[in-house]
Amino acid sequence: MKVDLVLLDINMPGRGGIETLQDIRKRFPKVKVLMLSMHPEETVAVRAMKAGASGYISKDAPPEELLKAIRKVLTGGKYVSQKLADRLAEDLVASREAKPHESLSEREYEVLCLIGKGKTVSEIA
Fold it and tell me: Which long-range contacts (CB under 8 A, 24 or more apart) does 76-84 make?
């Protein structure tokens, strides 16, 4: 079976979406992956793109925007919302310092998010 595109949620039970994305990249490097999330783009989109996603879209985006993202990714492009593209451009111009959480590994960032959600150490482990 040939797969052209995977729609992957960044938050999944058990393994995280970023880890799953990295596995897909290793096993099927040509498959395009469009990440979906309920989280604001500025917190996870760049991580997803650095991990190999072909695009990132918020789950609350209108259906037309999802279709636009799918079409762009399927034709070999990269997709981010206009809002995120503007922010990334501003960051390049401002040459800002990296935020502390941007230097964390994927697992460290996942643990940080779980702590923020009020999970106990036992639940996180």
Answer: 76/32, 78/49, 78/54, 79/34, 79/54, 79/55, 80/41, 80/45, 80/49, 80/55, 80/56, 81/41, 81/57, 83/41, 84/41, 84/42, 84/45, 84/56
For the beta sheet containing 55-58, the strands, ordered from the edge strand earlier in sequence to the opposite edge, are 5-9, 32-37, 55-58
Give CA–CA dist 84/25, Å, rounded: 23
Residues contacting 26, CB < 8 A, separation 6+ = none
Tell whether pTM > 0.85.
Answer: no
CA angle centred on 19, ends 14 and 21, rounded to 5°: 120
In tens, the pLDDT along 53-78 reads 999 998 888 999 999 999 999 999 99
- In angstroms, rounded to a whole number, what is the distance separating the alpha carbons of residues 71 and 88? 22
